[in-house]
Model the fold of this input.
Amino acid sequence: VRLTESGGVTVEDPRITSKLGGNGAEVTIAAIVRNHSTAAVRGTLRGSFGNQSFERALQLKPRETSTVEIP
Done:
């Protein structure tokens, strides 16, 4: 896992969970994003797992912390 951050937002506790079923595995990627600034921010969380890429637009209020889950 490689993380890069910019501005006053950090990405914390990244994790990948899988659930096995009859049709293979269901993978969920999750992380905590934290806005350390006193201003609202917008950004994009991007990443990849194997050959699958993901992208999630984010908006965080001042000092807000949110858990992002990508199925």
Summary: The chain is about 0% helix and 70% strand. Strands lie at 9-21, 24-35, 41-49, 52-60, 65-70. The chain has a mean pLDDT of 88. Residues 43 and 51 are 23 Å apart (CA to CA).
